[in-house]
Amino acid sequence: MKEEKIKEKVKQAYSQRVERIEKTRSTASSCCSPSASQCCPPSAQMLNKLGYSAEEINSLPETVMELSAGCGNPTGLAELKTGETVLDLGSGGGIDVFLAARKVGESGRVIGVDFSEKSIAVAERNAEKMKAKNVEFRLSDLENLPVENESVDKVISNCVINLAPDKEKVFKEAYRVMKSGGRMIVSDMVTDKKLPQSIRNNPVLWSSCIGGALPEQEYLEAIEKAGFQDVKIAEKGMSIEGECHGCEGEFQGVKVYHVIVKAHKP
């Protein structure tokens, strides 16, 4: 598939997911069906498996958690400090933005970027509901971030960069906006070898965090090419068996699994 077609299909899938979840909330009916990929909100148990503590889960409104479609908890490993500016790439309903906002405090700031208008609208409503004054959400493609050069201390992302056709460009943008000495912590899906073209050309699998996943080494090299140093895997595995969120498993002989990667800008 061409890059613009991929973006169009992914955006459509995640916008429809927002619509299904909101419809479910208003009608109390089930959003799930055999054909509805990534349709249902994650349970508290699922979020706990992803690395979120019970305290974190219980502190957030349901409308924040229900749009989460991550494959880890990057805020848990980001070592965020009071007063820092944090950028979340692919912020969805805002779960990682709000958790980060508490850690950086009133003197800090967290920016969430997402290319789905519907996700941004939900996140902004959540911010208003939570009276979160140190967060903001910006509508944009991750390959062209609406963020000033060298303006953020930390960049986080949760199972979103795999959805971008040009991952090297995303990492270059993350490097551009990061201050010297800043750190990036991303949770994402990778593979043990190249995916067959039939999977990479499947729009449903792209939207499910499978079709766009790179081989692990290629993913790490893309981060290094952007200029980052000390690129290391902090967490790796298949901890979400049998669930659509994360989509870990084996596809046509290729293992797809999550990693949390740390890197820093010199």
Largest sheet descriptor: 9 strands, mixed
Q: What is the number of helical segments per DSSP (H or I, 4+ residues)?
A: 10
Ends: how far apart? 36 Å
Unreliable runs: 28-39, 239-246
List key phrases describing it.
single chain; 266 residues; alpha/beta; Rossmann fold; nine-stranded mixed sheet; 10 helices; 9 strands; globular
Give the secondary structure arrangement, pairings included:
Blueprint: H1 3-27, H2 44-49, H3 54-58, H4 62-65, E1 85-89, H5 95-104, E2 109-114, H6 117-130, E3 135-139, E4 152-158, H7 167-177, E5 178-191, H8 197-200, H9 203-207, E6 214-215, H10 216-225, E7 229-237, E8 249-251, E9 254-264
Parallel strand pairs: 1-2, 1-4, 2-3, 4-5, 5-6
Antiparallel strand pairs: 5-9, 7-9, 8-9
Helix pairs in contact: 1-6, 7-10
Q: Overview of this structure, please?
A:
This protein has 266 residues and is an alpha/beta fold. The chain has a single domain (3-264), classed as Rossmann fold (3-Layer(aba) Sandwich), CATH 3.40.50. 35% of the residues lie in helices and 23% in strands. It is built from ten helices and nine strands. It has helices spanning 3-27, 44-49, 54-58, 62-65, 95-104, 117-130, 167-177, 197-200, 203-207, 216-225, and strands at residues 85-89, 109-114, 135-139, 152-158, 178-191, 214-215, 229-237, 249-251, 254-264. Strands 1, 2, 3, 4, 5, 6, 7, 8 and 9 form a nine-stranded mixed beta sheet that branches. Helix 1 (3-27) packs across helix 6 (117-130) and helix 7 packs across helix 10 (216-225). The relative contact order is 0.15.
